[in-house]
Request: fold
Amino acid sequence: MAVVVAGVVAATGAAAGPADDLIAGLRHECRGCDLTGVSFKKANLEGVDLTGANLTDASFHRANLRGAILDGVNAYGTNFNMIDGTQASFKGADLSRSMMYGAQLSGADFSGADLTEARMQTARLTSAKLADAVLDRTVAHDAVANNADFSRATIEGANLNGAHLGRSVFDGAAINNAGFVKAEASRASFVGATISLTDFYGADLRRAKVTGAVLTGNRFATAATSDVDFDKATMTGNFMADGRLQN
Reply:
């Protein structure tokens, strides 16, 4: 016999596997499980523990992952589009090429995670923890990441154009060839960051902190930079808000 749970057909009885039991709510942990390619679309997985699981090419589209533990998972190419991952933990996870379009990830913990080439357009990352994460070539334009922690993150070739980054922390981050075009980053902190060849055209950087930062070859044209003390940063070859090119 089969039962339908959250729009997914799950087997019951002796033949049921760990994925079916997770979907049916019969188990709440599957540490180290191989869940390659499994569809958890719209499933209720609130609070489940999938630490170290293989989630390659799995789909969690619109699933409930509130408070779930996905530390150290292999989620290469996994579909997390539109999930509710509020307060979920992805510490040290491989999320490269994963899809998180429109996901609710407020308060989620991505510390040390690999988000290379992840697709996070319009995701909500308010107060998320991304310290020491890798966001190389990540697409997160129009994401909402106010009060998020990007400390010591690697952000190379990433697209954060139009993102909301107010009061977010990029202290010690390595940012190179990234896009912050028209990003709203007032009161953001870039203390001790290394930022090069990055585009802040039209960004709101009012009251941002750049103490000890090294800024090289960036574009700040038309950006709002009032109350930003660039004298506290090492500046070389940047296009400033007034269109002036530094020597």
Notes: Confidence is low (pLDDT under 50) at residues 1-15. The helical segments are 18-24. Strands lie at 2-5, 8-11, 154-156, 174-176, 194-196, 214-216, 234-236.
